[in-house]
Design brief:
With 163 residues, the chain is of the alpha+beta class. Helix content is 25%, strand content 22%. A 6-stranded mixed beta sheet has the order 1-6-5-4-2-3. α3 links the parallel β4 and β5. The two termini are 28 Å apart. The mean pLDDT is 96. Bound molecules: zinc ion. Zinc ion (ZN) binds next to α3.
């Protein structure tokens, strides 16, 4: 038997004022996007904004449905839109934020497991790390410099070898 450990690294910023301009703009776009979410069931508005290496910013927000699984998270709405609009572009960073009239959201909201898996595949595909900037309605901001830190042991079909 052998024990192994994985260490992850992330940064904490007390407010958006401590972020660089590019990250500040991305957070602002994510906040705007959260206001346009269609979230009548959860009452939990999430917004995501992705900065591409061509300078474009693509946003997404959660889109819910009466048939629950038919809806989709803000992060995947944004990533799928970015990948369909600009298939060759690299996703440099993604800002994610949320607010709610029903819940206290004074901490950074982290992406769900399914979104992490999708992020991981895009990061692997583009061979360049994607930075994640997380902000709640209030409070500190977390910055994770690569998706691999959010999802160690991602499922990667490239790992499968044909018999
Ligand atoms: Zn998700």
């Amino acid at each position: 038997m052998e024990n192994r450990e994985i260490k992850i690294h992330y940064e904490i910023y007390k407010s958006t004022e401590e972020l660089n301009n590019q990250d500040k703009i991305l957070i602002e776009r994510a906040i705007e996007a959260a206001h346009n979410a269609y979230a009548p069931y959860s009452g939990f508005n999430v917004g995501a904004a992705i900065l591409l290496d061509n300078g474009e910013i693509v946003v997404g927000n959660n889109q819910e449905n009466a048939a629950y699984p038919s809806g989709l998270c803000a992060e995947r709405v944004a990533m799928f839109a970015a990948s369909s609009l600009y298939p060759e572009a690299i996703m440099e960073s993604i800002a994610i934020t949320a607010f709610s009239d029903k819940f206290v959201v004074d901490f950074p909201i982290t992406p769900c497991g399914s979104c992490r898996q999708v992020m991981s595949e895009y990061e692997t595909r583009q061979k360049k790390s994607m930075k994640v900037i997380l902000k709640g309605a209030k409070g500190e901001i977390q910055v994770i410099n690569k998706i691999a830190d959010l999802l160690p042991f991602m499922f990667n079909a490239d790992d499968l070898k044909q018999k």
